[in-house]
Amino acid sequence: MIPNSGPAEPIAARSPRSKQENVNSILEFLHQLPKDLPRGRSDSEWTKLIKQRFSDLGRLNGCDICPEESSSQWLCDLVWYREENEAVVEVPLALESEWNPSWRSIRYDFEKLLAVKAGIKVMIFQDYEDNLPELWSKLEHGIGTFRRDEEAETYILAAFREVPHLFEIRVIPPTA
Questions:
Q1: Which domain, by its residues, includes 68?
Q2: Which of 16, 94, 100, 141 is deepest in the core (most CB within 10 A)?
Q3: How many domains does the chain have?
């Protein structure tokens, strides 16, 4: 049972879009986000806007969202899900974000994504230390090593870099 959640508010367009359409919308949003939040904004402001926009996109896909503003977190920082007859039948997207740049903190959140069954898995993190090639390598190694449904999962890895104030993004598509 999902904590304190209820059906999403009715939205005119509630039919699911294709996975690729969602990936494209997510990439567009992540590229735009640093332009919408000028330098000096707090981590909580970034998190709030990320959750708000991902929630809006999920609702446009006919999904319920957890957590809603009034509910507690379930599985990951943000999850799109669908229910039928009071049972979860699908998790199209799971999102984790970690603003602490230490590998230990990033890894802790990233491993939640490895374990959850979702078609799109988004990991948003920050790189202060100019060690992005090492982080990419560790994340991709984790994806390659974990026994997963390779035919169904797309990973979006988004590293925010304060200088030059943008996201560097890697998309790891399904292998089949």
A1: 19-172
A2: 94
A3: 1
Q: Is residue 9 part of a domain?
A: no
pLDDT confidence of 68, banded at 50, 70, 90? low
Q: Which amino acid belongs to residue 156?
A: I
For residue 125 the two structure tokens come to 């993190």
Full-model pTM: 0.86
- Token readout for 167 is 């996201």
Tokens of 140: 């991709």
Task: Indicate whether 32 belongs to any domain.
Answer: yes
pLDDT of 11 higher than 50? no
Highest mean pLDDT: which of 1-5, 63-67, 111-115?
Answer: 111-115
Please give the Cα distance from 19 to 93 (Å, whole number). 10
121 belongs to a structural domain: yes
Q: Is 86 helix (H, G, I), strand (E, B) or coil?
A: coil
Which residue pairs, CB below 8 angstroms and at least 24 apart, start in 17-23? 17/60, 17/61, 19/92, 19/119, 19/120, 19/154, 22/57, 22/61, 22/92, 22/93, 22/120, 23/120, 23/154, 23/156, 23/171
Residue 80 maps to a domain: yes
Instruction: Give the pLDDT of residue 21.
Output: 92
Whether residue 103 contacts residue 42, with contact meaning beta carbons closer than 8 Å, is answered with no
